[in-house]
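Appendix B. Chain record.
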Amino acid sequence: MSAELCDDCVRGVRHEGEPTGKIEKIGGIESYVAVPEGDSYSKDKVVLFLSDIFGIPLVNNKLLVDDFARNGFRTIMPDLFNGEPVPESGLSNLSQEQRNAWLSRHGPDSWKGVLDAVASALRAEGVTWIGTTGYCFGAPPAWYLALKGSSKVTVVTHPSRLRSPEDLEEYRDKAKAPLLINSCEVDQMFPLEAQVKADEILGGGKFAPGYERTYWDGCQHGFGVRGDLSNPKVKAGKEGAFVATVKFFKKYQNL
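Structure tokens predicted for this chain:
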């Protein structure tokens, strides 16, 4: 899988809706935060929404954070990009040269400290369960938290920049967080051969904590966040991957 960003990483459809969360500082990191209505949700549980390259400004991301909160989880999307996500205009006109220049400024050393600060602040306030949901760029950050033992459950949807088989084998050998991968038919960043390899490495009970993978026919990389919802298959994939993620979190929420 390429370390670059594919065309589908940087294009898509802006979704309609009015976000209901708010911007807060978590461990000194600007974050978009949504909480369930009422006061009956578990205060010791948090979902970390690890976004694609468009980050907090893209309304699609904020609407998904709100949706996770509506399903019972305080959900936090930290700014992984030090105030420099790819602008929304990049949905239609980002050259490969611009993509590479942006990526050169946003390698793992740029976001590991962000995640450590947020996780530390959450632990300090009594959070004992962190579930991660990583989309595209957010997959390696989700991997990082699981391998550190900072998260209890991992979900990645159309992940990018995961090496096959190396990162899959490392997860199997070192992580303890159950893993769900939401995959799709057309995905340069996590193609069909990588999906099959993931099943070979992690499936069939080989990863004792738990492994599942969904597959969405007729969908392409980015479907879970920026898909064209006028396409019935894409709409079904986006909604289905979201439901699968919520069910996976609830299945393992008592770890």
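Further analysis of this model is presented in Appendix C.
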